[in-house]
Amino acid sequence: MSESAMSAIASGTIRCGVIGVGRMGRHHARLCSQVEGADLVAVVDQSPERRAEMVESYGCQAFESVAALISAGVEACVVATPTVTHRHIVEQLLAAGVHCLVEKPLAPDVDEARAIASAAARGSAILQVGHVVRFDPVMVAIRNITGLTPRFVEVDRVSPMTFRSVDVGVVLDMMIHDLDVLIMLMGSEPEEIHANAVSVLGEAEDVCNARLVFPPGKDGIRCTANVTASRLALKTERKIRIISEDAYVSADFGERRGTVVRKAVNAEQLAAIRQRFQKGEDLSGLNYLELVKVEALEVGTGEPLRLQLESFLEAVRTGGRPFVDAEAGFAAVRTAQRIVESARRAGSRMV
Ligand SMILES: NC(=O)c1ccc[n+]([C@@H]2O[C@H](COP(=O)([O-])OP(=O)(O)OC[C@H]3O[C@@H](n4cnc5c(N)ncnc54)[C@H](O)[C@@H]3O)[C@@H](O)[C@H]2O)c1
């Protein structure tokens, strides 16, 4: 992108496009039309009905091809087409210097994810991956807890079958959200993976559990994570529990709330109990829940998808590194692929 185009972006409204206006893309289109500093110029979709709907709702242009969108002078674009199409679309956009926010997962496999990340590294346009959970106010609150050194993390993401995104398995479709968050929290990909999976409806896995062992932290201690994803559950649940040296954090993304139990805040009670233990007192009459000081997680407000778009536009404006860059998107896909391979080695029958 030319210097004059960059300085126009820095000072003014960014001309935005959305490619793929299905289930996710329609929300991106709405936000591009609402968020300050963005202007929804055009959308692209294979479906004439969906294109017409967007023109009617937002008064934008609508095209059948990515080339037409580029010709319309779009500066930044959200890609929300099926994962198997991401590479072909994103490579065209990056080659034309259009900044991309591409939905998760970055690609259906490691080879395509690497190709996209390499294209992003070669060009000057920004590429952000839509790992939106990082922008969830619950996750923001967890990230704001200081001194968290996770030793053990438990994550559950389960829901009934929606019959959508069945072109990929549950690991790439749902678990990948949590893989990105775990890699972000730990600062590295897992060293060891033990997974098991079950396929019921199609050939790809519908339920998966993985135990991930991360490399040792600065203190030489490893963290393990137990991650479960299912799209065959009878309820919807998105929960995380982090057992850290200094605190226990439990949060519910669906309910948008959580609790924190800090060791430091409970130091006096712990010392008193320790003393009574040492004296051999019978403490079975004590109510643990009354003793321990539990704080509410300070969860803010905001629509994660909007916060993600604002963060992307800020990176476009400043030319800074996006919060979830191509390498982060690649790391999540690589970890997902390792999990599926581990499940297959364990005997899970999948394609
Ligand atoms: N961040 C999240 O929480 C989340 C949730 C669901 C889906 N997703 C991701 O969003 C992406 C889209 O999923 P969806 O559920 O919205 O799919 P969808 O099928 O509902 O919508 C995809 C749209 O893209 C259009 N399309 C398909 N191929 C195209 C092409 N080559 N060019 C132009 N348009 C094309 C289709 O006509 C459709 O309108 C996937 O990568 C998926 O993994 C993310």
Give an overview in words:
It is a single chain. The chain has 351 residues and is α/β, with parallel strands linked by helices. It is built from twelve helices and 14 strands. The chain has an eight-stranded mixed sheet, with helices on one face. It has a six-stranded parallel sheet with strand order 3-2-1-4-5-6, sandwiched between helices. Helix 5 runs parallel beside helix 6 and helix 6 runs antiparallel to helix 12. The longest helix is centred in the last third of the chain and has 20 residues. The model has no long low-confidence stretch (mean pLDDT 93). The site of nicotinamide-adenine-dinucleotide has 23 residues, from loops. Nicotinamide-adenine-dinucleotide binds next to loops.
Secondary-structure content class: alpha/beta
Described by its quaternary structure, the protein is: single chain
Main sheet summary = 8 strands, mixed
What percent strand?
15-25%
Major β-sheet strand ordering: 8-9-10-7-11-12-13-14
Helix content: 25-40%
The fourth-level CATH homologous superfamily of the largest domain is Dihydrodipicolinate Reductase, domain 2
Cα-based radius of gyration, to the nearest Å: 23 Å
Count of structural domains: 2
| Distance N to C terminus | 42 Å
Chain-wise SSE layout:
Blueprint: H1 3-11, E1 14-19, H2 25-34, E2 38-44, H3 48-58, E3 61-63, H4 66-71, E4 76-79, H5 86-95, E5 99-103, H6 110-122, E6 127-130, H7 137-143, E7 150-158, H8 170-186, E8 192-198, E9 207-213, E10 224-230, E11 237-244, E12 247-252, E13 257-262, H9 267-278, H10 288-291, E14 295-296, H11 304-318, H12 326-345
Parallel strand pairs: 1-2, 1-4, 2-3, 4-5, 5-6, 7-10
Antiparallel strand pairs: 7-11, 8-9, 9-10, 11-12, 12-13, 13-14
The structure holds nicotinamide-adenine-dinucleotide.
